[in-house]
Amino acid sequence: MKEPHERASGDDRDDGLKAVRDAARAGRISGIDADHRIQQIKAARTIGELDIHTRDLRDVPPPAPPRFQPPAGRPAGPPPVTPPESSAGMPREGRPPGPGRTVPPPDYRPGLPTRQQMHPGARFGRPGRPPLRKSPASPLRIAVIVFIGVMAVAILVPLAIALLSVFALSAVDDGDGRSPGSEPSPSHSSVLTP
């Protein structure tokens, strides 16, 4: 047995390439995987690098022989059941389910599990999503919500009043910066009074 740090010889590479090609021919690895492994094996310098790409291909047990070998001319599996006396007088066709065969229940529907399987108590509930459980309100949660509401009102109400007053004053402004009906100050008067 060679050590992983030893330099790989040409024979070692050939053995690795043969193992990869045999596995690809047998269908144990895909063609793309085989091409990738072949490139990596050709570039490998040490036994350890070769081993990385061939380790899973070695020591593969051969395929198991079939458990039951039918006589020549008969299909594999249990014999078909057709005589009426074996089925309580009812005609049956085909083969009964045996090992390896499963028959789904008559009410089987592929897809997501039913609501009753997901939520055991949902059998007598309304259709649709199950109701969410309401968590009890704690005094701390109530106090935090009330505080946030009071702060929002304390900030938003004065802000709304200020904005409304600014817009109201700008709507009645006559253009020269004075509100209508206000008396001009003496500094703005063009007539000098003694």
Automatic annotation (TrEMBL):
The name of this protein is DUF1707 domain-containing protein
List the biased-composition ranges (Basic and acidic residues).
48-59
Which parts form a coiled-coil structure per UniProt? Answer: none
Return the InterPro entries for the record. Answer: DUF1707_SHOCT-like (IPR012551)
The residue ranges flagged as biased composition, category Low complexity, are: 179-194
Claim: Zinc-finger is one of the keywords in the record: no
Membrane-spanning residues: 142-169
**What keywords sit in the KW lines?**
Membrane, Transmembrane, Transmembrane helix
Residue ranges of every copy of the DUF1707 domain listed in the record = 7-57
- Pfam families in the cross-refs: DUF1707
- The source's domain of life comes to Bacteria
Q: Residue spans with biased composition (Pro residues)?
A: 60-83, 96-108
Q: Which segments carry the region annotation Disordered?
A: 46-136, 174-194
